[in-house]
Amino acid sequence: MNMRMAAALCGAALLFATASHSAPKSLVKIQKISKVQAAKIASLGYDVVSIKDNYAEAVLDKTEAAALSSKGYSLKTLIADLDKYVAQMKSTQNKTDSYYNYAKVETVLADWAKKYSTICRLESIGKSCENKNIWALKISDEPQKNEQEPAVLLMGAHHAREWPSIEVPMAVAEKLLSNYAENADIKRLVDTREIWIVPVVNPDGVIYSMEKSKFWRKNRRKNADGTYGVDLNRNYGYQWGNVGSSNSGYSDTYHGPSAFSEPESLAIKKLAQREKFQSSISYHTYSELILYPFGYAHNANNPDSKIFIKLAEEMAKINGYRPQNSAELYPAMGDLDDFMYGNEKVLSFTFELCKSFIPPASQIPSFTLPNVEAALHLIDKAGTYAMAIPGNNPRLIENLGFEDALNAISDISTIFGDERNIVIRNEVLKQVDLISKRLAQLTVDDLKQQSTEKWQRLNSEQSATLAVSYVRTRLLFDEGHNPGTYATELINTVKNK
Ligand code: 0X9
Ligand code: CA
Ligand code: ZN
């Protein structure tokens, strides 16, 4: 059990502890006591909600606190009036400055789909255990068409209690939609990419966390043994198993009876296999980390780790987080990223947002703003770095725009210029060859239209020499068979190069 899970248990106990309505109760830290002492205090009837190595936390009224103090215990009040605290939390939940809940996500997505109908469309990609829609918003020009553009998937709330994970993908969507008209950079991203936003992968869990038990993590499957919930981030089908995940329905990391047993993870799998994404982010809380695969075991070979590390470092520069391999945090089998990369060759990342599961709503802008920027960077680079991955989607390169293709070649040579592993080097060269052919084709088309703009761009780009030579060969070939296809001047400069 990791620290986050321990915190969760403590939080759940806290909610139940505040259900009574007598004298105001406080959350109190009993300092410098052993586990045995804490257990003894609990056995005397005090409401001890959490026991740690050298302290405990308890829910106490004034009389109880005074009694413990007089026995010599050192107390520190953490939350003075718990009822008031919980009431405050609840009252902020549906205001405009507070966290999105499922109902609000649903109405806001529907509003956007109407208001920005030329650049997005809303789709239900499946239903949860309790029959709630799992919504996906696709943002792109010509949103009804599958255009063979680099595609990115952003997901929130695999885990119910990690509310900030809904905020960030929603904020990315809002940024793209509301800035499209006046911001040229945003317009370029929307026009040349397909961005899919699934803000609530686990609707039932989120509703349960917001309405019943704040620190609920899993979905709301009724398990065969009478327990509730499967951990969706242990239910994916690449290296599904028992490391860092449990086969007991009681566990917070229960992996379910089989891989993809849950409609929520299955819906993501189906979407991924249909859309063939180049990159993805799954948002979680907390720890301010950017994680990349593999996560099922230490030192599992990731042939694309250079790209993952480069991208993670670039995003980390933007949001101030720490890039790290998933398994280094802790090995866990059956998570989303391992499936996305292991099965689908997607550059998949997990962001652990914030410094706690649910920071106060007033902090929302402080974590959405930098993380929107990090996501925009990923959306951009999905069109370049991902082109280095063999077998991801060859049709994509055949449809790449000139600028993206040029950037792809230059980004790929930056990363792999000094690659010594001959197998990787060869694979990357094959990709560079495909991209160079695409660049050459676009340039020749341009030249046939009597424009030398692309040809000049190509010549000024160091990494595009292969593309230049393809253009040369093609021009001289055409000139031999069909003299006069291109301006004589152009042919002369090409000959002299
Ligand atoms: O354990 C998880 O599912 C994620 N952390 S959380 O606290 N949000 O639950 C991290 C998953 C990272 N993947 C692996 N370590 N395999
Ligand atoms: Ca499009
Ligand atoms: Zn999580």
Question: In words, what does this structure look like?
Answer:
There is one protein chain. Residues 1-22 have low confidence and may be disordered. This protein is an alpha/beta fold and 497 residues long. Helices cover 46% and strands 14% of the residues. Helix 16 (422-448) packs antiparallel against helix 17. It is elongated and about 100 Å long. The chain has three domains: 3-80, Alpha-Beta Plaits, CATH 3.30.70; 89-382, Zn peptidases (Aminopeptidase, 3-Layer(aba) Sandwich), CATH 3.40.630; 393-495, no CATH class. The longest helix has 27 residues, at 422-448. It is built from 19 helices and twelve strands. The protein has helices spanning 3-17, 35-43, 62-70, 82-91, 102-115, 164-179, 184-192, 203-211, 263-275, 305-319, 326-329, 336-344, 364-381, 394-398, 402-416, 422-448, 453-460, 465-481, 488-496, and strands at residues 26-31, 47-51, 56-60, 74-79, 120-127, 133-139, 151-155, 194-198, 279-285, 289-292, 322-325, 347-353. The structure holds N~2~-sulfamoyl-L-arginine, calcium ion and zinc ion. Residues 4, 159, 162, 233, 284, 291, 295, 326-327, 329-330, 332, 335, 350, 352 line the site of N~2~-sulfamoyl-L-arginine.
